[in-house]
Structures are given as C-alpha cells and as structure tokens.
Amino acid sequence: AMRGHLARNDAASPAAHVPLLVFPEGSITNGAGLMRFARGAFALNEAVQLIALRVKCPLPLAHDTVRSSLLQNYLRTLFQPWLDVELVLLPLLTPAAVEDPDAFAQRAAHLVAKELRVPATMHSTADKAELLRQIRAGG
User: Fold this and answer.
1) Contact 27, 114 (CB under 8 A)
2) Up-side HSE of residue 118: CA atoms within 13 Å toward CB?
3) Considering the entire predicted model, what is its pTM?
4) Which residue of 1, 22, 77, 93 shows the fewest CB atoms closer than 10 Å?
C-alpha cells in the first residue's frame, strides 16, 4: 500500500519529494519500551529522519494501553491540564548497502530507544493484539 501511494505521488510530480510521516511501532504503548518497528517504511531503501517523541503528563493517571479502550485513553489525555511534549530529531539514518528492511528497522528502533532511555523490544503489534485477545477471553 505504501509503495503504491509513493509510486502514484512520484508519477504525479517526479521532482518533488513529499515527506512521509510514519509511526513505525504501529500502536500506542505505555512508554516502558519500544515495540518492534514495522518494516514498511524501511523497505523503501531511503534515508529516514528519526524523531523520538517523549510525552509527560502532570497528573498521575495510569495509562493502560492494553486493557483500556481508545476512548478511555483519549479521555485520560483530555483531562490532563497540559502535556509536555518533546520531539528530539536524531541524525538522518541511511540504510547500509546490504541491509535488509527488518535489520534497518531494528537499527532505527535501537537508536530511538537509546534516546528515550527505554528498551527496544521484539514485541510486535500482533503480539499486543494476541495479548489483548487472551485478556478478553479470560486467559
């Protein structure tokens, strides 16, 4: 899907490079670690501008991204008097000549995790979905 969109964009305006914003984890987390980055954007074999996003909430509201719904997470955020949001631009990352997209994605994840001082895990959005399914099934 991403390649098709970019191909249409290139055909419409070959000289223009339109930035593509991607959230490679593919899901929200509680901030305790990074989920495995999906390979999609990294399969384009292009340099990527990594941005580490750090959000701090002034009120001690528990954020549970597995058991709570999107609405609950939205309301928790809405009732914060303010949010401190910090964006850190990391150096431009270029794929190595023989680097496959998964390795490139994981190299990017480790750089972002290092900046955020959290572990880069191998848990994927599919793992999170399976955990959610088990919780809902009572297991």
Assistant:
1) no
2) 18
3) 0.79
4) 1
